[in-house]
Amino acid sequence: MSNTHREQSDVMMLESPFHSRVKAANELNEWDCWAGYTTPTKYFDVELEYFAVRSTTGVFDLSPMNKYSITGPDAQAYLDRVMTRNISKINVDRVGYSVWCDDAGQVMDDGTIFRLAENEYRLCAYARAMDWLSWCAMGFDVNIEDVSDQVAALAVQGPTSCSCLKAMGLEGIENLKPFGIAHFDFDGEDLMVSRTGFTGDLGYELWITPHKAEAMWDALFSAGESYMIKPIGSLALELTRIETGFLQAGVDFVPAQDAVRLGRSRSPFELGLGWLVDMNKPVFNGKQALLREQREGSRYRFVILDVDGNKPAHNSFIYQGKGKVGTVTSAAWCPTAKSNVAFAQIEMPYGEVGDDLVAEIYYERELHWTRVMAPCKVIESAVFNPPRRRQTPAPAY
Amino acid sequence: MTDYDVLLVGGGHNGLVCAAYLARAGKKVLVLEANEPLGGAAASREFAPGYTVSSCAHWLTHLSPVVSKDLDLERHGLQLAARDLDSIGLAPDGQHVTVTGNTVQGAGLSPEDMQAYTEFHRKTIKFSKLLAKAFAVRPPKLVESNFTDRVNLLKLGLGMKMLGREDMSDLLRLALINMYDVMEENFDNETLKALLSFDGVLGAHMGPRSPNTVFGYLYRRVGDVHGYNGPAVVKGGMGALGTAVADAARAAGVEIRTGSPVEKINLQDSRAVGVTLVGGEVIAAPLVVSNADPVTTFEKLVGYRNIETGMVRRVSQIRMRSGVAKLHLALDGLPQFKGLDNTQLGQRLVIAPSMDYIERAFNSAKYGESSALPALDISIASVHDSSLAPAGKHVMSVIVQFAPYDLREGWESHKEQFTQRVIDTISAYAPGFSSQVVASELLTPVDLEREFHMKGGHWHHGEISLDQVMMMRPFPGATQYGTAVDGLYLCGAGSHPGGGVMGLAGRNAAQEIIKRGAQA
Ligand SMILES: Cc1cc2nc3c(=O)[nH]c(=O)nc-3n(C[C@H](O)[C@H](O)[C@H](O)COP(=O)(O)OP(=O)(O)OC[C@H]3O[C@@H](n4cnc5c(N)ncnc54)[C@H](O)[C@@H]3O)c2cc1C
Predict the structure, then answer these.
(1) Domains (ranges, CATH) in chain A?
(2) Are B269 and A282 within 8 A, CB to CB?
(3) How far is the CA of B465 from the centre of ligand 1 (A)?
(4) What residues contact residue B151 under an 8 Å CB cut-off, 6+ apart?
(5) For residue B501, what are the CA distances in angstroms to B15, B53, B199, B321?
(6) Are A312 and A332 in contact (CB under 8 A)?
(7) Whole-model pTM?
(8) Do B457 and B449 meet the contact criterion of CB atoms below 8 Å apart?
């Protein structure tokens, strides 16, 4: 593993390959730590950053993401054993979303799998996974490498994102299908673009060698200027992902390997991710346990709640009648959809679509706490899902 | 439709015992053994023209009397050439120590030591009786224990209570410490201490100071509970036991195919559905029972890629580093050991004059080297059984510790040197010995692995230590002979209670399979 980046740094917190640019753009100088990296929570205003994603283009630096290269003759068979979904269905130059479980059928993490070539994949994950991925490799002819430091990445998301990239010179980018991968030349280096993202909008992710990171940032922002391109921090991204129904590891579920207390981890079914589980595969980690769960029933249900009022139901208990039936894991007032959304874990058998529940919300104004019991309804799907997300060629805004 | 109810992979003694019990319960069983001879590590071989030895296990110390009686092994040809033999700890100065059942004698022994040994023996047998009870039934599960398991646990617990307070706390204390300390606590005579502590490390990757060695010793004493007041010698070599068990199995209706190595265990929807032989023949059956060690079973036969990672992890972490080699020597006459008369040459002779000697021998193994001065367990079976060697000649079989499986320099270049080292070691106790050797054969752990298809050549198919016995054997999640692969069972030394020529793993597995009946 190349450590160029980490070695250069003389401070405890690591810096992303885009750091010089991020720092210059960060008007509020508000920072957080993500996977050991200094990352911006917001650059100028969370709402405005959010609206950049929804109305023009927002750019998020996702370089700290953990990235693993998986290559070798058994790469596909290997991933099929690790992942719950059928990896053979991901063609070359395509990306798939999946979760992976331990033997108890409990979700360890979710991530995206990029098929770069016949026997070459890249896995992007929230949590560090090298240890588990290595254990999983026993019996397979695969090579697994942590390439987190070898790839710099930007998410370019929003209605004008395609136009920005075209203006940057990425010809034909409008024809890239959702979950597709295309390669371009950038200053003599390979620039990989995937039509993927965490915002539920039209959007792309750009992957490049770290030493071209700053140049790429500059090219992107100058090309995108007339398309109102803006950098966004983690708080704005959080709003967009809740609006579009994406789970966040470590927030909406405890990665099984981190769960200390019995029963705190969740299965894919309990996270509403049963569609990612392919029981027709002969074997994959967690299959036996998940078959048992299918027979015996799940403990929890993941639900999306439409909550009355405009107070986000952060950390709320959820009631059905007088009984406490669950808790909220993520909540936000979603400006575009104009709805107050919460993700919750509800004990079975409660929380069917259409059920009326109550969220106990506490909020504070100038040290004064108020409690509201806000009615809420279990809704079928996420509140934000625009057609442009799926259209090819991508609409030009 | 398939012709068989059960396929048994491996015709070691446990596999054959298991097959016989299953057949007696009405199952149609086919045993598939890779080798031509049956019995696995219960084997004999003519390693030089006219000279035959037990090629792996050479002392019968543990055979379950229940198995022996149920299968009527005597009727099927099992004969003992000698039994209840002494163990003699050889001392360089000829001041040997001789253990006979619960007594010990020797010129250099104090009356206190003699008395202490009898008391020590009484106590350990008490503990081993408890173990023997646990050995005769399936191990309880760690969690989800059902009624039978609770009763078995209760019996074990009750048994411990019945020991009396003093003995019980002693057992709990002893089980966790090491032979070295226990010996120091009980005895003065160094040869005696070494002789007893060698029993605690036999077949193990451990020295007297290693934890778990007291458990190893108690394990060994279960043999006494099974009626062996000392080692026995099987007439014709240990292979005759393998043959007798095979005959008993055939008589019970078991079909046996030798020279039929299984290439893989076939799965369908994570369920075992049969096997494929080397050569491609596919045989189907609703149940597959493996007598191979757990690592071979899951890594080679099932394939790590066909089971889930957590289980792969547990299998791959089973400690099964072997440090035991076997040396066979053809002798042109009886050797003359200092201080021993000819009547004693048929006893079990141990060269391990002090605990430090054993510990040093073990140190080498830790670092991938063979012992400069190895500890030896010697059997001259031809003293009891003249059929093993030409008239007037003899065969010697030596268990040699330590000879690490993963010898740093590799075994090929080292074999000759190591053979000579063992011969020289013996010569120090039996002057002129080396000139009596007319042929030799060294089986290193690598050879044992190749010959008997046991991973690492490990005596017990996986170390006997507190974290790998009872409900943790062979590994958590595959206890009670069943595995995470439905329809696949284990019945060899790698499962509860463990190795040695005992037959209980095979019997218990069969009982479990019969009990689970249609749900198996
Ligand atoms: C050097 C040495 C000395 C020992 N000395 C003693 C002793 O003195 N006294 C004592 O009681 N114990 C002794 N032991 C231990 C004892 O030999 C074993 O614990 C015992 O024999 C194991 O019996 P088993 O039936 O469980 O397995 P095994 O005897 O190992 O039988 C397993 C069988 O499965 C077969 N097999 C494996 N894979 C396949 C396949 N793919 N297809 C078909 N067949 C397959 C093998 O060929 C073998 O026949 C000794 C062990 C060693 C290594």
Answers:
(1) 3-63+151-232 (3.30.1360.120), 66-145 (3.30.70.1400), 299-386 (2.40.30.110)
(2) yes
(3) 18
(4) none
(5) 12, 16, 16, 20
(6) yes
(7) 0.91
(8) yes
